[in-house]
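Our consortium's second objective concerns turning raw sequence data into structural hypotheses that experimental partners can test. To show how far this objective has progressed, the report includes one record in full. It was chosen at random from the queue rather than selected for favorable results. The single chain below, 129 residues long, was entered without modification.
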Amino acid sequence: MNTLWRKVSGSLLLLCLTMAAALAAQVRIKAFFSSSFTDTEYQQRVIAKVNANWQSSGEMAAAGSKTIIVLKCDRNGAVNYQKVYRSSGNRTFDGDAEACLNRSAPFPPLPPAYRDPYLEIHFHFLVEE
């Protein structure tokens, strides 16, 4: 009984430490816009929208991991291209990042002063502790 209790309590401790580490990890989202796009108000609105839509399914990638997703939105803000450019190595985390962008779309229409037919944005989802 005593040996069994030690094994069970050791496993529970490991599980609790793993869960605590996952809960302590934070995701920071950065966005990099086409260099010709300088409307900071629009950029802030997009970043705020994406941050508000972040949801983790519970399986976090290792600290220091990064998923990079490239997307293009048209003048109306509709996303017409989205691709994982760099995987974190954790499919669940990569999927969470893609789902976050899907929930965030469409983005606001592009400002009239920006003349290009689409806007390219690189989103970096970084796992920090």
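The partners drew two points from this record. The first helix runs from residue 2 to 24. Residues 79 and 105 are 7 Å apart (CA to CA). Both points have been shared with the crystallography group to help prioritize constructs.
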